[in-house]
């Protein structure tokens, strides 16, 4: 590494150590991050820090992502770069900062929590009785867990896209791409009872083809689904916080835990017969 690159790094680390009184562990972490950055810069033919540009820094951050580093690690290294370039700019009397033009850092999204299979079973058993709303909720929750549909796909599902004989629904996902999604026997039974006995009562005067309806006969909304899920989870005594996509995430998690291929867990552009076989083999409620 050229001395013109190495010496300013040492000065910055000394400032962190003595001026800001950061812990030795933190200073060591900054040092490792900046040495890695300086080596990348040197490989690009840059010999002095005044030659560094925002394009160069963006290329380094992109390389970190290609190396498989987490978003949190990349964000930490970005912070180290910002601190170093700001410090070097003050010492060198430069007003421009190449890190100032970088786009905002991405925030790492954590996967929602999956329910235990035992909690799912308690949740699905909670809608008791033969009332219209109980039959609706049973069908709604069984299909949500049995298919892994998004909430928007559940509440927007129409009867012409529901095939009880073949235990599958057809949905238009992101980008209007059609995909066939199988579900199990428990969901088929619950749907048949709901469509045959409960839905005609709930929407006797309504003229729409939406599968799931509210107590007044209108199409069920996303918020309506959330209230049903939250209320049933509370009644089932589930202590874990249940979020709107809890059943979708639990569906994928339990399939993968059973040994299913990830492509099958997201059900995208695969043969319908293959998907049905995967569902029967790996889903807890085939």
TrEMBL record:
Record's function text: Site-specific tyrosine recombinase, which acts by catalyzing the cutting and rejoining of the recombining DNA molecules. The XerC-XerD complex is essential to convert dimers of the bacterial chromosome into monomers to permit their segregation at cell division. It also contributes to the segregational stability of plasmids.
Core-binding (CB) domain: residues covered: 3-89
Domain Tyr recombinase: 110-286
Family: Belongs to the 'phage' integrase family. XerC subfamily.
Gene Ontology molecular function, alphabetical: DNA binding; tyrosine-based site-specific recombinase activity
Subcellular localization, as worded in the UniProt entry: Cytoplasm
Keywords of the record: Cell cycle, Cell division, Chromosome partition, Cytoplasm, DNA integration, DNA recombination, DNA-binding
Gene transcribed to yield this protein: xerC
Residues the record marks as active site: 150, 174, 245, 248, 267
Self-association and partners: Forms a cyclic heterotetrameric complex composed of two molecules of XerC and two molecules of XerD.
GO cellular component: cytoplasm
Protein name: Tyrosine recombinase XerC
Keyword set includes DNA-binding: yes
A Pfam family the protein falls into: Phage_integrase
GO biological process terms held by the UniProt record: cell division; chromosome segregation; DNA transposition
Stored InterPro entries: CB, DNA_brk_join_enz, Integrase-like_cat_sf, Integrase_catalytic, Integrase_recombinase_N, Integrase_SAM-like_N, Tyrosine_recombinase_XerC/XerD, Tyrosine_recombinase_XerCD
């Amino acid at each position: 590494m050229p001395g013109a690159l190495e010496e300013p790094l040492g000065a910055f680390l000394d400032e962190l150590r003595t001026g800001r009184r950061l812990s030795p562990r933190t200073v060591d972490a900054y040092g490792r991050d900046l040495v890695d950055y300086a080596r990348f810069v040197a490989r690009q033919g840059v010999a002095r820090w005044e030659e560094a540009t925002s394009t160069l820094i963006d290329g380094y951050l992109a390389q970190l992502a290609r190396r498989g580093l987490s978003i949190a690690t990349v964000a930490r290294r970005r912070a180290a770069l910002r601190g170093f370039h700001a410090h070097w700019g003050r010492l060198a009397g430069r007003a421009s900062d190449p890190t100032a033009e970088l786009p905002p850092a991405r925030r790492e999204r954590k996967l929602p929590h999956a329910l235990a299979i035992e909690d799912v079973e308690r949740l699905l058993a909670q809608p008791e009785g033969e009332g219209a709303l109980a039959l609706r909720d049973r069908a709604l929750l069984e299909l949500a867990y049995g298919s892994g549909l998004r909430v928007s796909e559940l509440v927007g599902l129409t009867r012409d896209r529901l095939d009880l004989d073949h235990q599958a629904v057809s949905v238009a996902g992101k980008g209007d791409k059609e995909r066939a999604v199988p579900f199990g026997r428990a969901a088929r039974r619950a749907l048949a009872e709901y469509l045959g006995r409960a839905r005609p009562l709930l929407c006797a005067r309504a003229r729409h083809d939406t599968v799931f309806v509210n107590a007044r006969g209108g199409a069920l909304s996303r918020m309506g689904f959330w209230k049903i899920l939250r209320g049933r989870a509370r009644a089932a005594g589930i202590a874990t916080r249940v979020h709107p996509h809890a059943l979708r995430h639990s569906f994928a998690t339990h399939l993968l835990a059973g040994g299913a291929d990830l492509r099958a867990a997201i059900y995208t552009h695969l043969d319908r017969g293959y998907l049905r076989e995967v569902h029967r083999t790996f889903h807890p409620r085939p």
